[in-house]
Amino acid sequence: MSMSGQSCVERWDQSRARYVALDGRVRSVITWIDSSRERALELDQRAASGDSAGPLHGLIVGVKDNIDTAGVRTTAGASFRSDVVPSTNAACIDLMEEQGAVVVAKLNMAEVAWGATTQNLTYGACRNPWDLDRIPGGSSGGSGAALAARIVEAALGTDTGASVRIPSSVNGIVGLRPTFGSISARGVYPAAYTQDAVGPMAIRAEDAARLAEALLHFDPLDPYARPGAGAPATSLLHEPLRGLTVGIPADFFYDDLDAGIAQRVDEFLTWLDTQGVQRVSVADFGQARAFEAWTRIVQVEGAAFHEERITASPDDFSPDVLGRISSGLDVRAVDLARSLDWRVRYRHALDSLMSDIDVIVTPVIAIDVPAAEGYDSRATTQTLGRITYPWGLHAGPTMSLPIGFHPASGMPVGIALSAASWHEARLFQVAAAYQRDTDWHEHIPPMVQQQEAPGE
Fold this sequence. Notes:
Layout: H1 8-26, E1 29-32, H2 36-48, E2 60-64, H3 91-98, E3 102-107, E4 119-120, E5 124-125, H4 141-148, E6 154-159, H5 165-171, E7 174-177, E8 197-202, H6 205-215, E9 245-249, H7 259-274, E10 278-282, H8 290-312, H9 319-326, H10 333-353, E11 359-363, H11 378-385, H12 389-392, E12 398-405, E13 412-418, H13 424-437, H14 446-452
Parallel strand pairs: 2-3, 2-6, 9-10, 9-11
Antiparallel strand pairs: 1-3, 4-5, 6-8, 7-8, 7-12, 11-13, 12-13
């Protein structure tokens, strides 16, 4: 990993200092794990004797607070889980720690992962380090904000429809929704079982690739896991892009883009042309209907999981989240059946389309980063998700890659890269090439620079 020559303990101390100095304003962390410093010390001792714990040795990681951590509370952003302390780790935590990662923090999120703004009424309204008056996205908003504030070096989020990719885009980081079922969701508090995916997030594409490679592992104990074989996520990091076929959808995704976002997207497409790729137009594959199908499936699965609590203790939820989840109780079974059938056909159409295309490129969100409000507004979530939900229904991977800053607001802008199932390596190939040619990912929010200036 990119560790700048410092020991793990030195970097742990630096991360905690940033947490103490900045997180009162950012509110990206629900629980800081002080005991993790002992783990950092142990790893330094191993390194001093010439031993490595693995490819993630010493990586400082924060994880979304719906991912179980043994002995550390896992709230899922809900008031009714404020005292829940799991006895075992989620499968993804065990994998990271076995390969040398240090989990230092449980990160803020939208309540029970329902919302795209992370204005959590119980654990604090998380804000964007680039502008504290704006949202960090959601539902993995704390993961995106903690990375942007450099409180952690990498993070895990979960993505049901857009919950890794939106925070990645608006915080200026790399975030991956992997091939569905490729990273174990065992030990993750669910939003919707058939849609939830654990997603690695980092500043640099190469670091995100290493984290993804560590986690892409078939788990026979996860009923939604899918066995599959793809190239290792890091295997194409240094390969040129010449000869790749890049698809640009003709409809929907590029409609009604904010002018500043359109400018950055056009610049990225121009950069792709300089790499010798072949651009092709992508015909409609049903993307405009995806929002309807995704919403129906997720509403019903959420309502099924929470039905007992909705009925017995509705005050456990904030009014906005209660309204969203309980709406699934009113969906007709025949309508759900139609949406499930449509998802299968949609995925089949995408698989066929991607047999001749290496990467499809689309904007992540169509608008500039919204201002923060007092709660996770359903309207804002729908606006942010309009062009991300079609990739939430895709069985293969989609990445958000930072491509600069909005020329008017100065807020981060992301681009979405999508590929066929098990082709994560192709996305990281494109992302790493772009980051070699640009330095957008090296920019640091002013609040972080100001906090560190006195000691420089």
